[in-house]
Amino acid sequence: MSQKYDVVVIGAGPGGYVAAIRAAQLGLKTACIEKYVGKDGKSALGGTCLNVGCIPSKALLDSSWKYHEAKDGFKIHGIDVKGISMDVPAMIDRKDKIVKQFTGGVSTLFKANGVTSIEGHGKLLAGKKVEVTAPDGTTSIIDAENVILASGSVPIEIPPAPLTDDTIVDSTGALEFTSVPKKLGVIGAGVIGLELGSVWRRLGSEVVVFEALDTFLGLADEQIAKEAMKTFTKQGLQVRLGARVTGTEIKRKQVVVSFSDSEGEQQLTFDKLIVAVGRRPYTENLLASDCGIDLDERGMVFVDDYCATSVPGVYAVGDMVRGPMLAHKSSEEGVMVAERIAGHKAAMNYDLVPSVIYTHPEIAWVGKNEKQLKAEGVEFNVGVFPFAANGRAVAGNDAGGMVKMIADAKTDRVLGVHVIGPSAAELVQQGAIAMEFGTSAEDLGMMVFSHPTLSEALHEAALAVNGHAIHVANRKKR
C-alpha cells in the first residue's frame, strides 16, 4: 500500500526545504524527497545553495578576502605582518565544515517540524503520484494531495569548453581547487564568474574573464556597472567584453582557449578554466510523459503568478520556473505555495527581489534602474552618495563605491536602490523594505540614522534625490 501525504516536495534546496518546513508548520503532513549525495558519500539536504553554491562560495570569498587584507591591507592600520601564506586545503576544509553544518541543520529542522525526509530520486506521475527511486534502486509510490516541484538547476555546459576532471570545470569544480592556479580563465562575467574569479585572483592567480556580450553586468544600473568594471580592473581582473570562446584544447595539463573578439581570433593558455555561463532547470527524469506538466523551450515549468502549474494541486518553485535563479526568490516562493495550499491568500512581490554580487566591493540592487524607467517613460529623480564621504567607510579603509537612489519625479516614491561598496548586500535590504511600504525619498531623508554607520550613505542618497544632501555637493535636479 502506498504512502499518503498532504504535501510532497521533490527537491530539498532553498525552495523545497523551506516549502516543506512551512507546510509542516501549517499542519500539513509533509514529505521531502532529495537525491543529492555530498562529498562524504552521504545524503545531503540543502540543494545547490548549501552544498555547492551560495554558502561554500561565500566561505571561500571571505577566506580569500581575509588573506588579501592580511597581505595588503593591514599595513595602513599599523599592523606589520610578515610571512603571510595561504593553506588552500585548510581553506577548502573550512568550507566543507560549514557546508556540513548547514546541511545537517536542515535535517534537524525537518525533524523539529515533523517533515519526513526521503532519500532518492522523485518523479511525478499522473494523478499526483510520486515515484521514488531509492539509492539501492528499489522504487516505491507516494500519493499526494499536493506536489511541489523544486528540483533546482545545474550549470550550463557549452560545446567549445567540455568539462574535464579538474582542468576545465564548472562552478562546483571551482570550489575544490587544491592549489592556486597560476593562470585562471573564466568564461562568463556574471555573478558566479566574478565571484569565483575574485576568490582566486586574491590568492594570486592571473585571471582573465571572457564575456561574449559587449556590455558588462547588463542587469545592473549602468553607473554601478561602470564603477564595478573600473574597480575590478584595478584589482587585476582582466574582463574581456565581446570575447566569444570558440574552442579549448588540453595540452600538458593546461588548457588552450581559442576566442574571438574585436581584434580577431586569439588564444590564451591557462592552468584552469571555469565555465560559468549560467544555469538551466534540472528536470531530467522528473516528469512522466503523462503527468500533464508542460515545459518551455528552456526547460522551465509553466506556472502562474502563484507558482501553480496547469495541473491542479501541482506547483513548481525556484530555478525551474520564470524569474531570476536566486535562492531567496526560491525560498519565498516555497513559503507562498505552502501557505496557499493551507488556504491562506499569500502572494509574492516579484518587483522587489534583491540581486547581489558578493565580490569586494559588493554590488546589490532592488527595484528599477534608470534604463528601465526611461524605457517605461517614467520621470524620475536620482540621488547619489559616495562612500568616500561616509565616515564609517573611510574609517574602515573601505570607501569605494556609492549608494544610488531613484525616486518617482511626481510622487517621490522610491523606485530603485543600487549599491556598490561595503555591505551593499545588507544596505540594499533597507531600500527593499522602504519600497515594500511605498516610502518616499523624503520619508527616508527625515529618518534618524545612527552615526557613524554605512547606512548613512543610504540616508544621504535619499536626501540627494531632492537636492538636500548634507555631506556632498548636490547635483542639479533633472
Automatic annotation (TrEMBL):
The keyword ATP-binding does not apply. Keywords: Cytoplasm, Disulfide bond, FAD, Flavoprotein, NAD, Oxidoreductase, Redox-active center. Pfam families: Pyr_redox_2, Pyr_redox_dim. Residues 5-334 form the FAD/NAD(P)-binding domain. It is found in: Cytoplasm. GO terms for molecular function: dihydrolipoyl dehydrogenase (NADH) activity. It is an enzyme of class 1 (oxidoreductase). PROSITE patterns: PYRIDINE_REDOX_1. Binds 1 FAD per subunit. It catalyses: N(6)-[(R)-dihydrolipoyl]-L-lysyl-[protein] + NAD(+) = N(6)-[(R)-lipoyl]-L-lysyl-[protein] + NADH + H(+). Residues 353-462 form the Pyridine nucleotide-disulphide oxidoreductase dimerisation domain. The keyword Cytoplasm applies. Its EC number is 1.8.1.4. Its cofactor is FAD. Its main location: cytoplasm. Homodimer. Belongs to the class-I pyridine nucleotide-disulfide oxidoreductase family. The active site is a redox-active disulfide bond. This is Dihydrolipoyl dehydrogenase.
